[in-house]
Amino acid sequence: YCIQDFTRQDIIGFLRVWYENIELAAADETKEEEAKEKSREAAEELIKLVEDDSYKTLQHLAVNPLLLTIIVLIHRWQAVLPKERHLLYERALKTMLELWRIAKGFMQTFSYETSLDKLSILADQLTIANTRELTKKEIVGLLGETIEGKKTAVFLDEMIRNAGLLYESEGQYGFIHLTFQEYLTAYQYANTKEAIDILQYRDKSYWNESFKLFFNMGHVN
Q1: Threshold 0.90, pTM exceeds
Q2: Residue 14: CA atoms inside 13 Å, Cβ hemisphere, count?
Q3: What CA–CA distance (Å, rounded) separates 12 from 20?
Q4: pLDDT tens across 73-132, in order?
Q5: What spatial distance separates the first Cα and last Cα of the chain, rounded to whole Å?
Q6: Which of 54, 95, 117, 178 has the lowest tally of Cβ within 10 angstroms?
């Protein structure tokens, strides 16, 4: 089964209901009308951004219910949504790896830096192989038996259940959305591998998005 993409009306309805519930939950009972007005203003502001053609990345992500939830979390708690794709993805990942888990009441088992590093290794391998999934055995071969003193299986479980970045299906693991695989592949070459190594994939069409993100990160030579 696959979750259907949100329509425009789904997105608008979600944003209005989400903001109203959040603001009412946070407000004093005597200030419900004020909270409702605040929620309407915030929802309409984000609706305008999602429909603004200069925020095409938002339009691409907002149809996914999970990613729209991440966008609205960033909007409410960080106030500003960046137009640049790589910055938006960076904030989305930070939200999912830190704020998202805190909001759901989960303890953070692995550091943000370690999580990003290990996820980028997986993303790179998936993109190199032009596939969306790896087996647990393949992942352990890439990441080792343990991460920060804990079994790699614990890391995978946390990325699935708490962060919501990976999924598992019949023993195969992959990123919940291709966007994160593409971004983390670019991140790997921008931060860990030799930047020049990415050039060996310049003729592969399935590397196009990772190349764009890599260049947007400031690697233009």
Answers
A1: no
A2: 22
A3: 12
A4: 889 888 778 888 899 899 999 888 887 666 666 677 899 999 999 999 999 999 999 999
A5: 43
A6: 54
